[in-house]
Amino acid sequence: MITVIITAYKEERTVGKAIQAFLNQDYPEEIEILVACPDKETKAVIDQYTKKHKNVKYVKDPGKGKPIALNICFKKAKGEKLILTDGDVYVSNNSIKELMKQLNKENIGAVTSRPRSVNPRTTMLGYFSHLLTDIGAHHTRLKYVKKNQFIVCSGYLFAMKKLFTEIPEDALSDDAVMSYMIANKGYKIGYAPKAQVYVKFPTHLKDWIKQKRRSAGGYNQIETYFPKHKRMRSFWEEIKEGWYKPFTYPENFQEYTWTVYLYFIRLYLWFLIYKDINIKKKDFNEIWVRIESTK
User: Fold this and answer.
1) Which of 67, 121, 163, 165 could connect to 74 by a Cys-Cys bridge, CB 3.0–4.6 Å?
2) How do residues 223-271 score in pLDDT, each as one tens digit?
3) What is the distance of C-alpha 154 from the center of its chain?
């Protein structure tokens, strides 16, 4: 059996599409879909699906953070293979098939998908979202997998074998934490670029900085849990791995100027992250904020 885990919070407008995308999958193995949320508005939408589909089940989330919701779902999951995703994204119809092609291999502990932006490329933040998912995520993962190197799963959509039932409750980047936990058990992480997950990224610069501050800052926390592992995302890794790569992406002068601007924003972002972690020493609740414009 495969267990799909969808975590959501105040995503009543999008969670139905997230659930339906998995109901549309054509895969021979039995699938259960666990959907966790703490709010009544999202639950009302989930209830519509639990009434019509026996394999869709609501999981009560106490509202104390995504890691805690995941831990509850891990313990309830009947499947030995898990697919994790969010209530504000939706997946391609071939996602389970493509993820399982890799996950069914003996040495593979997890398989990550390819995020695709649904934002228009004609705006600055929309352009940023396409550049960072295509160059920053997709090309980097292809390169690392080709070299048989460790990659981190995308929290938007990934599959894993049920190798543990609990993660740290204060994990800022739960996808990265689980990736390192899987690697520590001797498994490799695969990449299934044909398993695509469609994501709405922030449409306001303030939200964009909040989101990146939250996710990239979470990678700094990895050092606490896994001090011996090389981090895939850090200020120095960005410099070393591809400071020039974004300039291969623009298709016109406007996009070129946006790319230049992105460098200054990323520099400011890493300064904020350093301040959050090392100076102000912010905790989980202060850094993990909701990004409204992605809903």
Assistant:
1) 165
2) 677 766 555 455 445 555 566 788 899 999 999 999 999 989 888 887 8
3) 4
- Distance CA(203)–CA(120), nearest Å, equals 10
Token pair for 94: 């071939």
Residues 6+ positions from 60 with CB-CB distance below 8 Å: 36, 38, 72
Query: What is the H or E stretch that residue 35 is in?
Result: strand 31-37
Residue 186 to residues 55, 109, 204, Cα–Cα distance (Å): 32, 8, 41
pLDDT band at 127 (very low <50, low <70, confident <90, very high): very high
Amino acid 289: pLDDT = 57
User: Exposed/middle/buried for 47, CB within 10 Å: 0-12, 13-18, 19+?
Assistant: middle
Region 105-119: mean pLDDT is: 97
Q: Is 208 left (phi over 0), alpha (psi -120 to 50) or beta?
A: alpha
CB atoms within 10 A of CB 247: 13
Question: Token digits for 270?
Answer: 């890493």
- C-alpha 266: how far from chain center: 19
Q: Is the pLDDT of residue 218 over 90?
A: no
Structure confidence at residue 217 (pLDDT): 58
The runs of H, that is alpha helices, within the chain are 15-23, 40-52, 66-76, 95-103, 124-131, 140-146, 174-184, 205-225, 235-242, 253-274, 284-287
Higher-pLDDT residue of 61 and 170 is 61
